[in-house]
Amino acid sequence: MEMARSSVPLIAVLCVSLLPLAAMAVGTPFHIEGCVYCDTCRFGFETIATKYITGAKVRIVCKDRLTLKSEVVGEAVTRRRGRYRVAVTGDRQDQQCVAELVHSPMSNCHVADPGRSTATVILTRSNGAASTRHFANAMGFLQDQPLRSCAALRKHYLADGDVRAI
Fold first, then answer.
1. Over the stretch 91-150, which tens digit does the pLDDT of each residue have?
2. In the chain, what is the greatest distance between 2 CA atoms, to the nearest angstrom?
3. How far apart (Å, rounded) are the C-alpha atoms in residues 117 and 43?
4. Are 31 and 86 in contact (CB under 8 A)?
5. pTM of this prediction?
6. Quick one: 153 exposed, middle or buried, by C-beta within 10 A (0-12, 13-18, 19+)?
7. How many CB atoms within 10 Å of residue 139?
8. Residue 129 is inside which H or E element, if any?
9. Is 3 exposed, middle or buried (0-12, 13-18, 19+ CB in 10 A)?
10. Residues whose CB is less than 8 angstroms from the CB of residue 158 and which lie 6 or more positions away in sequence, other chains included
11. Buried-exposed string 140-150: b where 16+ CB fall within 10 A, e elsewhere
12. Residue 120: which residues within 8 A CB-CB, separation 6 or more?
């Protein structure tokens, strides 16, 4: 009997302290953040020559694993330094969600890099993540013609040289 009485206050404290977390999980949107760049050297990754794109369009798409039906759950336009933030409401449970490139306003850098055109994002609270702020990998478009300085930059990267010297 003594054991049962001593556990009642503990259960009450746990219920009161966990209630705000449960409420947050239901109504608080996820905030997906990332950036979009122009791969000026066509290397397939960001370099010191990379330009970040203002005004690029990005969307968040989730696909149901059973029906394979896709749904756009958020969209954004990049701001300064190519950064975007998308609010997505609702827990997507075990859906496969990605951030994907839609459009670049740069006429000489508008073809999405096939290897960097999407970024997986996790939109569920069932995995124990407490934060609603999630970061997507950077995504890039390829510049039509690489910059002239890219040849020297490539040599430095391949030689493991100091790229700050360029």
1. 888 899 999 999 999 999 999 999 999 999 988 887 666 788 999 999 999 999 999 999
2. 82
3. 14
4. yes
5. 0.78
6. buried
7. 26
8. none
9. exposed
10. none
11. bbbbeebeeeb
12. 96, 97, 98, 136, 137
